[in-house]
């Protein structure tokens, strides 16, 4: 386990003339973790989040960042806020400037970057969230999802180590929320620690490394999601609902089905549970192949050629650049979220699939598929498009 | 909604990529020429050329443009009717003595004067609308900065510009919420609702202000507002067009001298 980056020790906070919002909380967050703060409205999630970058100072107790107690003088707060980026729930409240470029440039400018550096970081941040070409647009003309992305880019431009999101998907449509969650995954994969607050259990359950259940300013439970959400009693106390998959798993268990393995977090896990239950004799049936295309290495020509040879193949895209590439080449995407799992599911059905992705994610796909292979004993053939452009024949590796 | 509409058109118009100075020069130059002219012909000429530019070059929907023009147009008509009736003169066409010491009349001079004022209004309006529809505020900020307008003023303008749209959104929401619950059904009720609307809008703006400070603090605000983008380069063709337009208009101003309509 990596080292601790944020820590709270017995913190308490009371709003002026108001309720005690935080009543003695202690916890720690490690580097590169994905944390979900889950709780009903008014549980103190947002208040707690604003303590992470020193916007609110606890009445008692201590907040530590990088094992140093947080100092509340102006200079230290600046350093802290550079390293802990905060994305507000309402992007309208976060976007300050009249154009997208200016807004994203706000942080870097105030950090004293030179004009060229500012330009570079802004371009990169906008590229990261998939908003290239939006520089001169005024924010009020953008859609909710795009505004959210601008807000995220504004924080990314300061290159923080920790990203704090207050209700990242509130007010977004399902596909918009999925895109944002995918972006959070991507950022986490680049080594950023990510903390979100939400009351959407279904969203937090498959995503988080650790979930912190909060109620009335206290921590109710803090554990891996399977455990944190696994207890119907505590979930009910926290005014939340059980994740559907967990509920299904429990109901199956109650009916006497012996489910092996860990509790399911994704549809794939669930399928595995059910399939081992019925012991389908499909162990030697042909599995579909997953083809990976790294859009950073591909100029599109290769890919188009390959696609024309494999028309009708299920295609998924991971990462903002891959999605943009798909849009440019007018490739219809079947999956944009949870792509690896969905492709494994396809492969189990004996269908082939293609994943468009970027350099940094290729390894992750291999890791995930291998991990699944180890767990289930199913060997799914994989093939990378860019490494061996001449190896176009489909039989390669897919014959049992 | 109207302000948003204007800005939206400006952000998407066909002359968006033309250097802001050129567009401002064309618009402001036209206004000055309208004021210098002592004949009705040159403002009319300017109005026709600029309207053509707005509809054909900037590709603004002709109907939208006409709608924009209608408010000042009626205003101009009403004022001009007043001017024509009240201004006196020697060559009387029609006269009505309402009171012994006060009479309404239409004279050659009053018609000339009315026509002149009317054309000036139309010319000036088209120049104003030309600027409003082709140059978004965001580009004008760049010009301001390059013209050394104090930073504080520009920063304030930018924050106000950004906040206007958020506030308008909120006001519309509150208004619709009131409308849905029949807040404007009677005169009494509408007075009350309007008062509540103002109060709620004030509180909302206060809140937004506090949030703004928080948002700026969270991003290490240090008294600096981000640099603006760059102005578009001055291209030869638009530059030539603006010079031609201004010289031609100036020529019309000089040639037309004091020609009157009758």
As a percent range, the share of helical residues of chain A equals 40-55%
Q: What is the level-2 CATH architecture name of the largest domain in chain A?
A: 3-Layer(aba) Sandwich
Radius of gyration of chain B: 24 Å
Coarse shape of chain B: flat
Largest pleated sheet of chain A: 6 strands, mixed
SSE sequence of chain A, one letter per element: EEEHEEHEHHHHEHEHEEHHHHEHEHHEHE
Q: Which runs of chain B of at least 5 residues are low in confidence (pLDDT < 50)?
A: none
Terminal CA distance of chain B reads 43 Å
Total count of helical runs of at least 4 residues of chain B? 9
CATH classification class of the largest domain in chain A: Alpha Beta
Q: Describe the strand arrangement of the main beta sheet of chain A, using strand numbers.
A: 6-7-8-3-9-10
The residue ranges of chain A in which pLDDT falls below 50 over 5 or more consecutive positions are 389-400
List the domain count of chain A as a whole number: 3
Overall domain count of chain B: 2
The share of residues in helices of chain B is over 70%
Content of β-strand of chain A: 15-25%
- Structural class, from secondary structure content of chain B? mainly alpha
Strand portion of chain B, in percent? 5-15%
Folded structure, characterized:
The complex is a heterodimer of chains A (400) and B (262). Chain A has 400 residues and is of the alpha/beta class. Chain A folds into 3 domains: 4-242, P-loop containing nucleotide triphosphate hydrolases (Rossmann fold); 245-278, no CATH class; 290-384. Helix content of chain A is 40%, strand content 20%. Chain A has 16 helices and 14 strands. In chain A, the strands form 3 sheets. Chain A has a 6-stranded mixed sheet with strand order 6-7-8-3-9-10, sandwiched between helices. Chain A has a 4-stranded antiparallel sheet with strand order 2-1-4-5, with helices on one face. In chain A, strand 7, helix 7 (174-189) and strand 8 (193-198) form a beta-alpha-beta unit. In chain A, helix 4 (100-110) packs across helix 5, helix 4 packs parallel to helix 6 (144-156) and helix 5 crosses helix 6. Chain A starts with a strand and ends in a 16-residue tail after the last strand. The model of chain A is unreliable at 389-400 (pLDDT under 50). Chain B has a two-stranded antiparallel ribbon with strand order 1-2. Chain B starts with a helix and ends in a 6-residue tail after the last helix. Helices cover 73% and strands 5% of the residues of chain B. In chain B, a hairpin with a 2-residue loop joins strand 1 (92-99) and strand 2. Chain B contains 9 helices and 2 strands. Chain B folds into 2 domains: 2-135 and 232-256, no CATH class; 142-218, no CATH class. With 262 residues, chain B is mainly alpha-helical. Chain B is flat and about 70 Å long. Classes of the chains: A alpha/beta (400), B mainly alpha (262). The interface between A and B is large, with 39 and 34 residues.
